[in-house]
Amino acid sequence: MASLRGLSRPARSLPLSPLARHTYTAGSIRCASSQAGEATSDLEQSTLNASQLSPEEKKDFRPWKRAADRKFGLPSGRYQYHPPKYERGPLHPVQSPASSDPIARDFVPGPFNLPRLKQTYHSTIASDLMTLAYMHVPPGTPGKERPERLRGWDGSSPYHKNRALRGPRGNPVLPLVERDVTFNNVPEIKEITISSYVPDAIQDADHLLVARSVLLALTGTTPEITRTKSNVVQWGIMRGKRAGVKTTVHGNAAYEFLDRCIHLVFPKIKDWKGIRATTGDSGGNLSFGFNPDEMKLFPEVEINYWMYPAKMLPGCRVFIKTTATSDRQARLLLQSLGIPFYGEVRN
Fold first, then answer.
1. In sequence order, which residues have a C-beta less than 8 Å from that of residue 152 and are 6 or more positions away?
2. For the chain, which ranges sit under pLDDT 70?
3. Which end of the chain is less packed: N or C, by CB atoms within 10 Å?
4. Position 99 in a domain
5. Total domains, the chain
6. Which residues, in sequence order, are CB contacts of 7 under 8 Å at separation 6+?
7. Distance between CA 309 and CA 208 in Å, rounded?
8. CB–CB of 220/253 below 8 Å?
9. What is the predicted pLDDT for the residue at 76?
């Protein structure tokens, strides 16, 4: 093998017979395998018989200092992977990793807890909603014709061809089309927005500070300050002034906030009937409110009630955004979670 390696490059490039080529290849593989076997045995002995670091060596062992003292960084192509910044379609050879992958750009660690209300939803309520919303249609039953939501063109002009349909007269806001509840679109809570309007903050900024502190205690997120959009001279409201705060919670935080409302706040409200059944925006989003006296019932405010001036404690409005496509489905979801409704029901 040493004689073959010692040959010059032109000599090694000469064509060899099949027998000689086979002998050369087998010899080189045998030599390489023997060296690899020796290296593997040395590696096994070194890893198995490695001595433990002494306390003095452990104290001096600082990987971060060794990385900081390194003059040249590691090759980025081999040791570092940066997912693409832009999505270039499903057929592009380079695809972004899933959001659950730690190297993804939109990776969010967690969840680190499972709220009781959310666990109840997935174990019991979701299957019950499918049962309650099931509408049996015998096979062969013709489907119902839905009225046209948009107006067409009469074709009196050649420009009407392939033209987009028009909205209803008066330009009303078209509600969402209610979808049947199936296994892949069971209504659930998407996010909850808590807002507080404090018009007294225009004259005294301390009201705004108290409202922001209350929402921070309830949600654990820093609320953003909102400004007025119109002028009301009689009430001393000027456009563009800071007069409110709001914040939005998602995921587990939304379920935890709603859990506190259902099991801790609502039972303490005296002569509380429930939420009006007429609430909603016809798109599956419902809302209700708390006055200043009811805000005291939250445990986060009650335990530190001495921190908030009694006359500055604000009320708030709670907007529950769900994945339902109608107010009927949203009411059914909240009723199953434990929120009662009263009054006239509007579909």
1. 165, 166
2. 1-50, 74-80, 346-347
3. C
4. no
5. 1
6. none
7. 12
8. yes
9. 63
